[in-house]
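User: quick one, sequence for these tokens?
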């Protein structure tokens, strides 16, 4: 397992369609666990393969302890009306906006065990499923903003993006950088 580099807005990988996963290899399992590790360090509740520069249709989610590895996920049903909530994205740091989405979704996906499963969700989990599955089809939350709101989001991003040369966001892994107190010199 390792901490992966996160790709940020401007990297074409975030706008590409992903490829269906045909077989679940040890490398894919390692990728999934590295995505979980990277997501936790980034304080996210979801992470999709394009966000770490990979083209597989794979995402990971952990919402309030409910963990999902989503291989070839699809939304098979959505409804319950719509809800508006503020969203952010690990690939567009420090940019936020209100997104209207269906309140409930039913998702069909395959797990790392190769078994297909279905899960129904509402609330934040439903929103996270939709946000991550959008990533697998090159869609980002800013695409849902009004023209004016998207313009202001992109203006804000214009001031942030220089922090990420080559569209790469490296997460601080050095203990000192995470403001933890490394063991004092003995
Ligand atoms: O895919 C990602 O970039 C991770 C997203 C997932 C997400 C965004 C909005 C709403 C639900 C999920 C987030 O950046 S993870 C950060 C976060 C943490 C707690 C609640 C909402 C968002
Ligand atoms: Zn995102």
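Assistant:
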């Amino acid at each position: 397992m390792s901490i992966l580099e996160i790709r940020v807005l401007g990297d074409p990988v975030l706008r590409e369609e992903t490829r269906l996963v045909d077989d679940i290899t040890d490398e894919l399992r390692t990728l999934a666990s590295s995505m979980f590790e990277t997501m936790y360090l980034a304080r996210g509740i979801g992470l999709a393969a394009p966000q770490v520069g990979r083209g597989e249709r794979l995402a990971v989610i952990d919402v309030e302890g409910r963990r999902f590895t989503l291989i070839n996920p699809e939304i098979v049903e959505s409804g319950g009306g719509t809800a508006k909530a503020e969203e952010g994205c690990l690939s567009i740091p420090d940019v936020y906006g209100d997104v209207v989405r269906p309140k409930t979704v039913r998702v069909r996906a395959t797990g790392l065990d190769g078994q297909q499963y279905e899960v129904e969700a509402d609330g934040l989990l439903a929103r996270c499923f939709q946000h991550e599955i959008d990533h697998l089809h090159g869609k980002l939350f800013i695409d849902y903003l009004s023209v004016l709101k998207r313009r202001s989001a992109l203006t804000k991003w214009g001031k942030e993006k220089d922090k990420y040369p080559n569209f790469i966001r490296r997460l601080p892994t050095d203990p000192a950088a995470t403001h933890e107190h490394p063991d004092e010199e003995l």
